[in-house]
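ARCHIVE RECORD
Type: protein–small molecule complex
Small molecule: PBG
Source of inputs: curated submission
Record status: active
Notes field left blank by submitter.
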Amino acid sequence: MAKPTPFPRVRMRRLRYHPAVRQLVRSVQLTPSNLILPLFVRSGKQIRQPIGAMPGQFQLSVDQLANEARDAANLGLGGIILFGIPEHKDSMGSDSCQDDGIIQQAIRAAKEAAPELLVITDVCFCEYTDHGHCGVLHDRGAGQMDVDNDATLKLLGQQALSHVRAGADLIAPSGMMDGMVGVIRETLDQQGHYHIPIMSYAVKYASAFYGPFRDAAESTPQFGDRRTYQMDPMVSAAQALREAELDLEEGADLIMVKPALAYLDIVRQISETYPGTPLAAYNVSGEYSMVKAAAAQGWIDEQSVVMESLGAMKRAGATTLITYWAKEVAQWLVT
Ligand code: PBG
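STRUCTURE (tokenized, with ligand):
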């Protein structure tokens, strides 16, 4: 005899019939204080240079960045993460370590405009090197150029220190160099900055979803790609856990998975493996541009798709979301 079905005693739709009941049983919440807004800074004055592949995003001069920082603070955002585009790039990415470099100017301006706002910096060399790679190069033999891990580590320590000296509240190394978190932690500690947290891009894939960002930050590699340092998307999820474990052992305070949408399985696994560690998901440029493009055609509703996607990242276990929509989301949440 067939087992009797629970229906009609059990009806899932009872939890959905009334808007207030739907609200009552939600467990995923988006809040402005969990959102981080990425901003691109360049030299000049009064510049808001639209980024072609990212409608609604701009390369900002320092004065304009200060306005954005004020807006972000007024909206109650969790923070801003800054990317610098220097006027002069060289093989070592020197501008990133200089007191009057573009990023250092940006940090000071943001802190002055909005002292209570968390100012985070992306610590990497790809925006600052003329070859567009995330560190200094060496010849692996037979003219095969590659990023020199250990030589880059020394410079990463200097870059992070210089950002902190300019006033950065939190440091986010994104270069996928082995040992980067440890070296930065040690450098900051030696100089007395032991209270500055590190949010490591621990699990960062060599992803085609970064395409529009490279336009925005003018950081496209001039040859080759980033596959010798960023993770292979097709590798087992166990490698992501290993990357997270190593960065935590080196002293990372928060860890990140990047990109977000195609890697929610990884977000879930890391959040379950390290439930006590804050986990950021980076809703990257390609994820942004795809939605913008489809919305501009009238094919999808931007606000609904964004809220649903960011909600999914939270549901997968992210505590913190880095998104180009941070300001809009904060506004949508109050309307
Ligand atoms: C490296 C960095 C990149 C992004 C954030 N930090 C680019 C890369 O690794 O090529 C991409 C972010 C995005 O696509 O939105 N400094």
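CURATOR ANNOTATION: Residues 122, 124, 126, 174, 210, 213-214, 226, 284-285 surround PBG (CB under 6 Å).
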